[in-house]
Fold this sequence. Notes:
The structure holds 2 protein chains of 2 kinds. Chain A is of the alpha+beta class. Helices cover 24% and strands 36% of the residues of chain A. Chain A folds into 2 domains: 2-223, 3-Layer(aba) Sandwich (Rossmann fold); 238-350, CATH 2.40.50.140. Chain A has helices at 42-50, 92-102, 107-120, 136-148, 166-183, 194-200, 218-223, 228-233, and strands at residues 2-13, 16-27, 31-35, 57-62, 65-66, 77-80, 154-158, 186-191, 203-208, 211-216, 238-246, 249-252, 255-258, 268-274, 279-282, 289-298, 303-309, 312-318, 327-332, 338-341. In chain A, helix 2 runs parallel beside helix 4. The two termini of chain B are 15 Å apart. In chain B, helix 9 (166-174) packs across helix 10 (179-190). The chains are: A alpha+beta, B mainly alpha. Chains A and B meet through strand 6 and helix 2 of A and helix 9 and helix 10 of B.
Amino acid sequence: MTQIELQNISKAFGSMTVINDLSLEIEDAEFLTLLGPSGCGKTTILRIIGGFEQPDRGRVLFEGKDITNLPAYQRPVNTLFQSYSLFPHLNVYDNVAFGLKIQGLKDNEIRPRVEEMLRLVNLSGYEKRSVDRLSGGQQQRIAMARALINRPEVLLLDEPFGALDLKLRKDMQIEMKRIQQQLGITFIFVTHDQEEALTLSDRIIVLNEGIIQQIGSPTDIYNEPINAYVADFIGESNILEGVMHADYDVTFSGRRFTCVDFDFYPDEAVDVVIRPEDVTIVSPEKGMLEGVVLSCLFMGVHYELQIRVGQELYLVHTTIPRKIDQHVGIVIAPDDIHIMRKGEVEGDEDI
Amino acid sequence: MKTYKRAAAPFLLWAAMFIIISLVMVLYYSFTNEAGQLTLANFQRFFTGSTLGTLWRSLKVAFLTTVICLILGYPLAYIISNMKVNFRTTAIMLVVIPMWMNFLLRTYGWVTILSKNGILNSLLRPLGIAPLDLLYTEGAVTLGMVYNFLPFMILPIYTVLEKMDHGLLEAAADLGANKWNTFLKVILPLSLPGIASGVSMVFIPAISTFEITALLGGNKTNLIGNVIEQQFTVTGDWNYGSAMSMILMIFLVISLLFSRNEDTDNEQPTPTHVMTEERRREVIDV
């Protein structure tokens, strides 16, 4: 069921357009991620939903009702802020209880709910602590408890993991997903970290310059990026200039390949996207293309190779290291060759 | 770092001469009589005489001044802190610029406004309620103090409000607090340090002033500052004057402690300065 609907939202700051005629439907109880580089408008969208920013044009609907002009404090959404914004003059208990005290609930109603929330975020027994004395991860969990105690129907999360170190970030991601599933409410999550987005989301929206590039499940977005921008942003990719001669017939890197894509204009210039892990290295005489190894970096699980093929560089992931200057052959399977129309974005096919 | 420490030496000398030695002298005078004998008579005289009433009135006027300054200053500081940046600077300049003019001159200005044939009375005359006795009243003294000390209330509160993290206000709104609740539960408690320093910066000069009372209170409204001044300039009783200064100082220290508590609430106490042998030698070298 559609819970939040953005209709033709536009927003400019001064002369800079941040969001350009954006429409979007958000389902009930889904984990939706707005993914894009900084300045793509993702935080602005979140702030418009939260009521901290007014769109110049367009409407925000919540369960069918227009909430565009509703002030932030009357909206059934809560936010986990990037900097947590915990109240420094209040201790942990009073921070978490803030929303309920505003609602005018009695102390004996508030206490069990605060305790329940602290249990949910694994910080029972921290009631009396000053928020300054907490670590970054703890502060974030308190901010989470403070936002969730109001039982919002939607939680907005603005790059909440930015300030945490890698290990803690992973732990918090797992915790966040657990909490979302336990409470069964909508999470709208903003990040520039594609890995985080792929791990957590039910649905990802890839944004660039205020325009939706692609909407889809993590696997859709990763396996079937709609254009070179998405492919480049989600994971690492080799993006090559190619020409589509006919259905299933493409030329790039000076060689004709068979692929699985069709329905292009004859001899249309296209972007060819190949994931580094889809390139297989063989001996030079067995390869479809021949190249020279320029570098070989150990990345933990795999080695990352740069291979020069003619004038182009291929990024290749492999578990077997190769020597620098070694001549190798490259094989790419037809269904690992992704052909993309230049500049296509979500919704273009409908027009 | 060492060179900076040496640069502080003249100040140490200054502080020793004009703060510590003078304080010790006041202390000495307050516990002795004219013959130089140790005595508590000065304090006895204070607590049995009419000066106690003057102290009480001084406390009352200073308290009233502080409250009025807070009531006027807080909203003003709040409004200024919410202005656009370039308006903000102008507004703060408007608060500060009158302070560039001589303090006595500014206060004397009120004499011409409030006196029997002054500006205010000549404006009120057509209404048939003039002339009013405005000058040489406790009200005129309070007015003069509020006028002179208001910037000392506005500036520290403004500084705190201006630095306040806007994210906290959004967080409060996010959690369901309307503007009034956000003010009561977030802005006001977080601006307490500013209020505390504003209060002590107004209360301390208000309780010890004698110029404003002299100009706007005439000889009708004597406050503790005037009584102390008279001991030194008219009566020549330095011992009694010193004793009264000591008592006044106790009230000032109390109001300072009040503001210090607020400041250090969220901070670790700073370690007290330990003077090592090496440093001591350095100071002596200079």
